[in-house]
Design goal:
Blueprint lengths: L5 H4 L5 E3 L3 E7 L8 E7 L4 E4 L5 E8 L2 E5 L5 E4 L4 E4 L5 E5 L3 E8 L19
Antiparallel strand pairs: 1-2, 2-3, 3-10, 4-9, 5-8, 5-10, 6-7, 6-9
Amino acid sequence: MLVKTLDDVLNTPDHVTGDAFESRRILLARDRLGYSFHDTRVLAGSTQRLEYKNHIEANYCIEGQGEVEEVATGRTWPLRPGTMYVLDRHDAHIIRAETDLRLLCVFTPALTGEETHDADGSYSAST
């Protein structure tokens, strides 16, 4: 059995912050589960364009208000607690946070924790 807490991650290299986000990477590839699990905050007023070309990502909103836009169609969906969206076709998307959003995120294949966003908003394939 593997047991971790958010406190185990905070203020470690697995706690990554940027201008528009804070990613608390609770499970990573080194945990050998085939997926990674993240508790992510998207900061109020921010807009991020992302496209995970090498990963499938599922996101479940547990706090806040915002929206997600599918770049290919321009279609938008509101984000609020209880909303899930899945980037099952490596969809380019835009996240807009009206308030701080808190998303529980699952990536497959698992992220290593060393990734940084490329210019197009994606992560390179894990090795």
